[in-house]
């Protein structure tokens, strides 16, 4: 995933991006993701601004039922490549690369964007029922047969308001 500064036309153009990243975020998060999409490149005199939204896809574990599923999520990208060492760095929240000419390697900034965009809550589907708190059975596969009458004894001293 590279941007050729010497061959990028002045003004706006598109850059197609596709690749696979190793995220190294632990066992319950996607370890590898496939990222693809188009970025808008705004090639100005002393800088190139890359903006857009890529789509990442990787196998991860559901936070409710612990089953594996394919997670698809958006990756927002904003990156600044400065060609002139004397120009200002721009917004402090935008990653900045310094390079005058040639090929700019976008691998690490795009990997970082994919890492920062991983959703905190990862569920296989909105209506996932999760696991039974008593026996650990996957409730998406059917009812486990456990009784629902498991009342916490700490609530016994409170009056019934019904």
Topology:
Layout: E1 2-4, E2 11-22, E3 32-43, E4 47-61, E5 68-82, E6 96-98, E7 103-105, H1 107-117
Parallel strand pairs: 5-6
Antiparallel strand pairs: 1-7, 2-3, 3-4, 4-5
Give the tags.
162 residues; mainly beta; 7 strands; 39% strand
Concise account of the structure shown:
This protein has 162 residues and is mostly beta strands. It has one helix at 107-117; strands spanning 2-4, 11-22, 32-43, 47-61, 68-82, 96-98, 103-105.
What would your notes on this structure say?
This protein is mainly beta and 162 residues long. The protein has one domain (2-117). It contains one helix and seven strands, in the order βββββββα. The chain has one helix spanning 107-117; strands at 2-4, 11-22, 32-43, 47-61, 68-82, 96-98, 103-105. A five-stranded mixed β-sheet has the order 2-3-4-5-6. A two-stranded antiparallel ribbon has the order 1-7. A hairpin with a 3-residue loop joins strand 3 (32-43) and strand 4 (47-61). The chain is elongated. The relative contact order is 0.19. The mean pLDDT is 83.
Number of folding domains? 1
DSSP helix count? 1
Radius of gyration: 24 Å
Mean pLDDT: 83
Q: Which sequence of strands runs across the widest sheet?
A: 2-3-4-5-6
How many beta-strand runs? 7
Q: What would you call the structural class? A: mainly beta
Query: Looking at the structure, what is the overall shape?
Result: elongated
């Amino acid at each position: 995933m590279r941007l050729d500064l010497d061959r990028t036309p002045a003004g706006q153009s598109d850059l197609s991006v596709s690749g696979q990243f190793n995220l190294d975020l632990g066992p319950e998060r996607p370890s590898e993701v496939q990222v693809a999409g188009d970025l808008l490149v705004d090639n100005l005199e002393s800088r190139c601004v890359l903006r857009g939204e890529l789509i990442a896809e990787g196998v991860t574990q559901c936070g409710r039922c612990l089953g594996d599923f394919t997670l698809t999520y958006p990756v927002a990208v904003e990156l600044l490549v400065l060609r002139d060492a004397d120009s200002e760095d721009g917004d402090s929240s935008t990653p900045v690369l310094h390079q005058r000419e040639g090929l700019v390697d976008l691998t690490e900034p795009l990997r970082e964007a994919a890492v920062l965009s991983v959703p905190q809550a990862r569920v296989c589907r909105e209506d996932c029922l999760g696991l039974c708190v008593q026996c650990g059975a996957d409730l998406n596969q059917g009812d486990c047969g456990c009784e629902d009458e498991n009342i916490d004894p700490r609530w016994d001293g409170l009056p019934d308001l019904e």
